[in-house]
Specification:
The complex is a heterodimer of chains A (208) and B (277).
Chain A lengths: L2 H11 L4 E2 L2 E6 L2 E6 L11 E3 L2 H7 L21 E5 L2 H11 L3 H10 L7 H6 L13 H11 L8 E2 L18 E2 L2 E2 L4 H22 L1
Parallel strand pairs in A: 1-7, 4-5, 6-8
Antiparallel strand pairs in A: 1-2, 2-3, 3-5
Helix pairs in contact in A: 1-3, 2-3, 6-7
Chain B lengths: L3 E10 L10 H11 L4 E8 L17 E6 L6 H11 L5 E4 L2 E5 L9 H12 L8 E7 L10 H13 L4 E6 L9 H4 L4 E6 L6 H11 L20 E3 L2 E5 L9 H15 L12
Parallel strand pairs in B: 1-2, 1-3, 3-5, 6-7, 6-8, 8-10
Antiparallel strand pairs in B: 4-5, 9-10
The chains are: A alpha/beta (208), B alpha/beta (277).
């Protein structure tokens, strides 16, 4: 048992049995995880995933055929189920599908989570990302609105362009546990680069 | 190996938003170590994938965590990016209620020489190594002058073994360039070993284009039915292109060796991670 299994036990007792696109629930003496869109199917209609390596492989390619480098993307493939033999395995499996998901929820509930705004994150970038700190608030806000939503990523952000929050804007409602985004991902930082370039070129054109 | 049953191990990798194979070696190394039951917890985090370096904190219940950069070079990432993202200023540092020990990257461990030799020998089939040029290829960058040191060190160590006719280093983004492999190699047979962790974007897709093996980047390694068809006959030479050095799960042993190295050399000492100007 661990602080993570304790958290998940409590969450399940409170009726939380879903996270992201998957459902997890007791199954005989074990726990089963499956895609929410497979809820109406019999278990023998689904493919058994036998280990975490195979489970991780399920998360790599999306239903759109694209590489799922953002695990909060709502393109998780369906048609499978995974048996976790105990709570430790259940936490581990859920964090294979959604990295750090339970850990972040626990930190959020414990009020130990540390969030950072996009501006804060960009301010500490160096190298090829160093210039991203020059993005305009308008450009950044538009980027966040477009990139940080399903199907690209369905996480709940604890940050905006220039603000940081300790708590989610709304309390989770059973059965769905949210996926938490505690600070902008590297993909979002990288996405700022072409916008900064466009903004710079526009400013140069305006001066000409 | 010392017992680390109440401690955590964090393996830091690069990852990629473009290549799906980039993170697999790190996950394999973590699993290799996990199965040995040495540490209470073993997790990975990534620069470009999830969980991120800033999320890594929350993964551990342990109060004491060893951080091993699963990187080839001691350079921009290991000296600047990772310490910054993990908020580490010293080799050992307490922060947010936990103690972190920041180890050296795997690529600079002396045992990497044997890994390179094994890889070159295995992937070049029945070639007589003494007739071959071995090229160890890395990324190279202008961001940190130290980035190619680990490759240059390995090349010198392999030269000293006398097993190859010639041993060279070459890079993607700085001279000597890997695209000039044929001109810089004095022998008819050339073995190229990518000094990378993964068969990812650079080693599997970019470098083959630079070598002239293929015209464009093509599919990722995991999307092809055949990994490589060595040897290749190009520019009047015979070329063997090996898998990246980090794709061997046994590289997990080097991670453990870097933890031991930390305990022997850095533990209980205040050593700054600040990069000398």
């Amino acid at each position: 048992m661990s602080i993570y299994t304790d958290y998940l036990t409590q969450a399940m007792q409170n009726g939380f049995t879903q996270i992201g696109q998957v459902t997890f629930e007791p199954h005989h003496d074990n726990y089963v995880i499956y895609h929410q869109s497979d809820a109406s199917k019999a278990i023998d209609e689904l493919d058994l995933i036998t280990d975490e390596e195979a489970l991780q492989a399920i998360t790599v390619w999306g239903t759109d055929g694209e590489y799922r480098f953002l695990k909060g993307s709502t393109t998780l493939k369906s048609g499978w189920y995974y048996i976790a033999t105990d709570l430790t395995s259940l936490v581990s499996a859920l964090q294979v599908i959604y990295p750090a998901c339970i850990s972040l929820l626990l930190a959020h509930d414990n009020k130990t989570i540390r969030s950072q705004s996009l501006f804060g994150k960009l301010s500490r970038q160096t190298g090829m990302y160093g210039r991203t700190k020059n993005i305009s608030q308008e450009g950044a806000t538009k980027l966040i609105a477009e990139a940080c939503k399903a199907p690209s990523c369905d996480k709940v952000c604890l940050w905006t362009y220039d603000q940081e929050f300790k708590q989610m804007p709304q309390a989770p409602v059973a059965p769905q546990l949210p996926l938490i985004c505690q600070e902008p991902c590297n993909h979002l930082v990288a996405s700022c680069r072409p916008i900064v370039k466009q903004e710079w070129e526009a400013s140069q054109a305006a001066q000409a | 190996m010392k017992n680390y049953q109440d401690k955590g191990l964090l393996i830091v990798g690069h990852g990629s938003t473009e290549n799906p194979d980039s993170s697999k070696p790190y996950l394999d190394h973590a699993q290799y170590i996990r199965e040995q039951g040495i540490f209470k917890e073993v997790h990975c985090c990534f620069w470009k994938e999830e969980p991120s370096l800033r999320e890594a904190d929350y993964l551990f219940e342990s109060d004491e965590i060893y951080v091993v950069p699963d990187f080839i070079s001691e350079g921009y990432f290991t000296q600047e990016v990772i310490p910054r993202e993990l908020e580490l200023e010293n080799r050992t540092q307490q922060r947010h209620g936990k103690t972190y020990h920041y180890c050296d990257p795997v690529g600079i461990h002396p045992s990497m020489t044997d890994r390179l030799l094994e890889r070159a020998d295995k992937d070049s089939k029945d070639e007589l190594l003494e007739n071959c040029t071995l090229i160890v290829v890395g990324h190279g960058t202008g961001l940190n002058k130290n980035s190619i040191k680990s490759i240059q060190d390995q090349v010198e160590l392999i030269r000293q073994t006398g097993k190859f006719h010639t041993v060279l280093d070459a890079y993607m983004e700085q001279a000597p360039f890997i695209k000039d492999w044929s001109e810089i190699s004095p022998t008819e047979t050339v073995i190229v070993v990518p000094f990378f962790i993964a068969d990812g974007l650079h080693s599997y897709q970019d470098i083959p284009v630079m070598l002239g093996m293929q015209k464009d980047e093509g599919l990722a390694a995991s999307q092809r039915s055949v990994f490589r068809n060595n040897p290749y006959y190009l520019q009047s030479k015979t070329l063997y292109f090996c898998s990246s050095i980090g794709t061997d799960p046994q590289l997990g042993e080097v991670i453990l060796e870097q933890v031991s190295h930390f305990d022997k050399n850095y533990l209980n000492k205040k050593i700054s991670l600040a990069v000398p100007v």
